[in-house]
Every structure is written in C-alpha cells, then in structure tokens.
Amino acid sequence: MQEKAARNSNPTEAGRAHDVHVDLIAVVVAVNGYEPCALTIGEADTLPSGPFELGHRSLQSGLRTWVEHQTRHPLGYIEQLYTFADRDRIGDEPQQRVISISYLALTRDEQGPGSSSRRWRSWYDYFPWEDHRAGAPPLVTDLLEPALHRWAASAKLEGAGAERRQRIAVAFGFGDRPWNEELVLQRYELLYEAGLVEEAQRGQGPASGQLMPGRAMALDHRRILATGIARLRSKIKYRPVVFELMPPTFTLLQLQRTVEALAGRLVHKQNFRRLIEQQELVEETGETTSDTGGRPAKLFRFRHAVQAERAAAGTKLPLTRS
Amino acid sequence: MQEKAARNSNPTEAGRAHDVHVDLIAVVVAVNGYEPCALTIGEADTLPSGPFELGHRSLQSGLRTWVEHQTRHPLGYIEQLYTFADRDRIGDEPQQRVISISYLALTRDEQGPGSSSRRWRSWYDYFPWEDHRAGAPPLVTDLLEPALHRWAASAKLEGAGAERRQRIAVAFGFGDRPWNEELVLQRYELLYEAGLVEEAQRGQGPASGQLMPGRAMALDHRRILATGIARLRSKIKYRPVVFELMPPTFTLLQLQRTVEALAGRLVHKQNFRRLIEQQELVEETGETTSDTGGRPAKLFRFRHAVQAERAAAGTKLPLTRS
DNA sequence: CTCCATTATACTCATCTGGAGCATAATGGA
DNA sequence: TCCATTATGCTCCAGATGAGTATAATGGAG
C-alpha cells in the first residue's frame, strides 16, 4: 500500500517495470605467506558468485551460501562493496539486465578439504603495479608511465591532454606527487580507459596495441577486485580489520608484514608498534616465539573487546569540546 | 560465454535462478536556512524512487530520470550508498524479492517551477536526537536514555543486558563517552531493535509501548535516510563535498554553519577557517558582504581545481617516507 | 666459547597538527 | 560616540607523528 504511494507519482511507470537478474559476487581475501590473495574458482580467473534467489534470507546469507558451495571455504567478516550494473564495458549487448552486488570478505586460509575447486592467487598477479613494498616497481616507470603519456598525448580535444596528464600524475604519483596506495580503482580505470588492459579490448576484434602486464579476469571481475583492494587498503587505517586475517596469536612483526602486504608499502617498524600498542588493540599472551630468528618475539592476541568499546570516529573537523 | 564459466560450478543452480525487482532510491540533500533537508514526495514521507528499467543507460542515469521526473529537481553530485534487500523488517512477506539500490545526491534548493510535488523537510524532523548544535537535546537524556536502559534491562539472556548497555553507551555517548555524530545508522537501528520507533511496530497490530519523537517514513526509507546522513557526515571530513551544497560564492561563516547543520554540532570558528584556508579549498572573490551584520565578510568561491589536484588520502599508518 | 648477524624492544627528539583562547578590525545602530 | 556584533589574525600548548639511536636476546658460524 505504501509501496504504491512510493511509485505512483511518476510518468513513465505504466506497468512495464521489468525484472532484473541479480548476482552476488565476492572478493574473498586472505594473506598467505605475506602475499595478499583473492579466492578464485574454476580454471578461469573468476570470482566466486551466484544468483540471488528467493530462498536466500538476505543478500549476505545468499552470498555465504554461494561462496561456501563453490569453494568449500567458510567466510568470516563480510561487508558490502558496491553494486555494478553497466556491463556494457565488457561489450555484451544487454538483452537482459544483470546487476552484480559485490562484497568484500576476509578470512584465513585454513587448508580444509575440498580445496580442489578453490585457488588463492596473489592480487599482485592482477595488479603488478600495486606492489610498492620494494619501492616503485620498474614496470611503472618503464612501461606504464610512457604508455599512459602516449595516451594522454593522443587526446583530440583542446586541453584534454593536460587533463589526462594530471589524472595520471595524481593516480600514479608521478612527478613529485606522493604514491597513494588507496587509488587502486582509479589506476585500473585509467589503464582501462587508455586501452592498456585486456578487458578494454574485448569485443574489439583482435588485440590491438600494447597491453600492460597483469592477469586479466572474467567479465568485470578485475574491476570488482580493484574495488575490494581499495576498500581494504582504506579500511585498515581506521578499523581493526587486519585481525580478521591473522591467526589467533601472532608477533607484532607478523602483523606488520600483513599490513604491508595489504597496503603494498612498508611501514616504520617502531612507530607501527607504538601505534598498535597505544591503541590497545592487542594484548600479550605471555608466550614468545623464536621462529622468527633473532631475539624471541612476544606473542599477542587481538583484544576483541575493542570492537565493542570503540566506534572509531576519524575527526577532521575542528569540533568544539564543550 | 565467460558468463557461463562464472556460474556453472555451483550445485543448486538448476536453471531456477529467478529475477528480482530492482528499485532505485535517492537521498537528496540540500541545506536550506542552515537546516539540512531531504527531498520527499507525495504526502507521505517517502524518498523519491522508481524501478530500474531496460531503458536506463546505467543505475545512476536511471536514478536521475526518476528523481527529476518525480520532483522536477535536477541533481548534481551523486554517489551510491548501499543496496538493501531484507525488507522483512517492514513485515510484508516477500512473495517477490525487491532490492533497493540507494544513492546520496547533493544539490541546492533553486526554487524552480513544479515544486508542488516536492517537499524539503529537515532531517532532524526524522531524527530529532541527531541535532546537537545546541548541546545534547533534552529528549536524549529525558526520553531516549531511560527507554533504552529499560530495554537493556529487559534482556533475557545472561550478559545480554550488559552488552546492550555498552552498545547504547557507545552509540549515544552516554557515561563519559564522546558523542560521535557519524553513528546515525547505529542509533536508528538500536531504537528500532528496542521497538522505540514506529517502523518497528508495523505489522504487529496496534501500537504497543512508547514511541520516541521523530517522524516515521514509508517502508524502510528512514533507515536509508539514516545511511545517507551517516555517509555525508563522514564524507565532509575528508572530501570537499560541502561545496555542492553552497551557492557559488559564500562567506566562511556561511560555510561553517552549513557544515554544522550537517554534522549536527558546532565547530571552532577560528580553527575552521584555518583548516579551510590551509587546505586551499577556497579563494577570495575580492568582494565582501555586510548582510551578516557586524564587520563585512569576504566572499569566497570553491577552488574547483582541488578536485583534480588532490586525491586526499587519510593516512593512519606509519609509512616510511623513502 | 666467542663473535656476529638478526630480530626485538625501549627511548629520544624534532616537527606537525589540532584544540583553545586572546586581540584587533570593521560594520551598523542606539 | 559607544557598543553589540561579526570578521580575521595570531599565539600557545599538548598530543600525535615521523625518524633515528641504543640496548636486549637469540642461533649459528668460526
């Protein structure tokens, strides 16, 4: 009844509202051996997914069902990423509309049974330009930068070249700009726009032009993966989500290496510890391990209590205290 | 073809994937007279919305079409909010599944023609407990706090009461905890869970128990509005989106009052200016106005260039510089 | 057994940033 | 002319952050 009130007052609505196919799709992340990995299925590079059905209690539970069926891998933390619809990028004419509701899930790779259909692959296989842990990869300055600048130079409209150059510089940190690890999606979309990734050339006949290194994925899955990486890189900075990827106990260096794997860049060791400890995110277990070589390291565990205690603001407004 | 690869490897898929009705729904925000307003339609408290159709080029353009048809109001900035599916909250049995893809849009109230079907209403009409510009509203301590604590006390399971009390304290800033203006959705959901808002009692027969002040909305629109407010309150802190709500030129105090209207709390005047100016978000027009009383104020305009120049990180990791 | 490479952990120091408040400058109206 | 009011500039202080130095435990090489 209220349903009606909500829809009536528009002109083109003449009963021809039509239904749409809805897919649930997951970016499942784990960090294995300090490599950040995404879960894929089949031989193709495909993210786990499946249609949203009547039987599903909710979007999340539907997603859980699909992923666990397809990969035999249980999911822990889940959050919604984004809802995509314009699949025209892939080049298939939309006879019927498909919508993809994407999710980010964090787990650990407990090697259970049934791992045949599941495959972890480092996300840097798909985005080799994103790993700056050993400094900017040569690939960036040797291949990406010149290719992107050629694309900028090929702009037809007045001023469009300069605008492209600026977008490129901001996204990739060229010139004296800083590298911003969060701009994963912007970088991928720039490369797509410049025709430098395989997905951009699908449906265009035989491959034309030079492609940048990095595995392609099915459909628009690489874009969805980029969205997930960007979200995670952003989120680790203001929410204690890294711990979803850690074993129950760990050393501070293990924690640091995991963060570095995700962020794709190195952090200052002493300051990292200070940050973690002053926020009281962890507590000592009392045990130590010398598996790491050198002086034995204390083992810590996540203080689950912080989840409830805090809500983590992130002020950037000069609020008044009183 | 790859489509197939993506869907084949799951067990329950036996051709019975079914289609779903997809609605696009908008939280359209403007600040009128320092009151943050949402756009509603009809007599009911309903957000503008309409079904996603084959004719729509993309989700966003579909949304634009609906909102502009329903309200004759052009939209500027748009971003996706969240995709909702579990309408069971409203109490209607799902014969068919409905999915709502919600968007946040920012505009200014240029009073054009055809405003009959449009209606701006302060979002504090719906969430009176969210306006802390004049300090915590009496409503919070006089009504909400006792009612929520009664609910916490009514918990059956062991420990559940304490857990509820903690959630309440964090969400509303009780005890010596700080008020966090971003937790709009958590607060609404707590009140919903506690049965203190009208929506929670729909389909439950005649109203039972005491309701908190604040207008209800159709369906789950109030939850969607809460999501939009939360997103906006968070976003103004790290992206220059306020300017979408400002006239072309403005004084710094006008800008400040607008931010305060959105955040629901006061900011420190001098520090606010410092923040704005050091980030070079605005530039002087060279003119002044004395409409404000007292010493005439300089007029500023937004430096649109910053959109391109920066990408705004938000580091919270102790990165190494080299 | 000693030395050394390696990792862990504790401090120090300079700088930056954000929260607060004081002081001075222009207005219009009483 | 005085005053209320708003605008705007500047100082101060405390806590957070970036960076580096110093010391503590290990295991393994010689």
From TrEMBL, chains A, B:
Pfam families: WHD_NrtR (PF21906). Residues 242-302 form the NrtR DNA-binding winged helix domain. InterPro entries: NMN_biosyn (IPR011213), NUDIX_hydrolase-like_dom_sf (IPR015797), WH-like_DNA-bd_sf (IPR036388), WH_DNA-bd_sf (IPR036390), WHD_NrtR (IPR054105). This is NrtR DNA-binding winged helix domain-containing protein. It comes from Aquamicrobium terrae.
